[in-house]
Amino acid sequence: MISIKSGRLFIGELPASLLAKKFGTPLYVYDEETIRLKVRELSRGISFRPLKVYYAAKANTNLSILKLVREEGGEYIGVDAVSPGEIEAALKAGFKPEQVMFTSTSVTDEEMKFAIDKKVLVNCDSLSQLERYGRLNPGSKVCIRVNPDVGAGHHDHVITGGPDSKFGIWVGDVPKAFEIASMHSLKFVGIHEHIGSGILETAKFLEAMGVLLKIVEKNRDRLKDLEFIDFGGGIGVPYRPGQKPIGMKQFGEAVSSTFSSFCSGFGKKLALVIEPGRFIVAESGLLLCTVNTIKQTPKHKFVGVDTGFNHLIRPMAYGSYHPIELAECSGAEEEAVAVCGNICESGDVFTRDESGIAGRKLPKIREGDVLAIMVAGAYGFSMSSTYNSRPRPAEVLVNGKEARVIRKREDISHVLFGMD
Ligand code: LLP
Question: Which residue minimizes the CA distance to atom 5 of ligand 1?
């Protein structure tokens, strides 16, 4: 677990300051136990069986983390892959092809052929993709993604249902999908939706479930081969102090009972599929960095660290809040500071909200201190870049007293790769 004891931040049994010293900063650190607990929380919280939890690999695609999720998830687990690269990663981590679904958008024939060759089910995101898929692989199994005209999420950029969203086959066009499928003798084994990311209210999830279930009910004659309904991911986690987690018990009960009564009416037991990414990995991870510079403007006290939005883009991209802790906190005296990165853009400030830079009350910080940007296990490293020609950090996985490097620190050769 991640804890603070007498002002010292621990990952498992190891102090963050020791990890920073041993492996250097910037450094992504993940706690194995937290990931295992989150996977178990899902399979325990949702009692409906058969249940499939397709981990959304985009949240964190590190092979060691994929292996860990697979091992802990056992029979329930699979992978939601959105690119040939993620399919490759899932298979390399030991997932079987039938445990992986390829849910991508704006897909080429080559990408679909890759999935077909690997025996991975393709989830079609548009009528034209379905048509092309039917020509490439007639008579095969298929899934379609529906845009149910219900969306939710922590920011506009991550809401994936409704008329502003590029995703899925519009709810009113679903009958056309059946026509295309029958022209190519495709078997509809699955139907899918994903309404957005960072949802903390069960009600929105249930509302979207209701829409998809209605579609299935209405088209039951065309869905004789249906094996599963996939309601997507999006389960949020608390980032800000005071934010409440979704409550897996209540969520699981609501989802299970809705689905169970649907199946009784439908007359066939289908598998319930969900695709959480953030829920499984977000709270397990943090980004350690070292304070290089402290300076003052008339408005802000800037604390400059040795990482930036190249390594954690969420504050810059969505105004997302990430808690920040000192690895070693000696005094209680607090002051409001703006923690900023080493990237040459003014937007490179971690402590921000929707309206811009926001001072964060932190214990007094000195140059050389190690800070931890918390709840960074999801969409942290996986969204990182080498902008400003800065290599990406290493990743370390902690299990109790042990820490191992699960991805080496990049060097400048990674940044310059492929160039003359
Ligand atoms: N399934 C599909 C089809 C998805 O597109 C996504 C996320 C998920 C599942 C998993 O969603 P999750 O359970 O992790 O919320 N970069 C953004 C999040 C983008 C999510 C994109 N799709 C962020 O940092 O908040």
Answer: 194
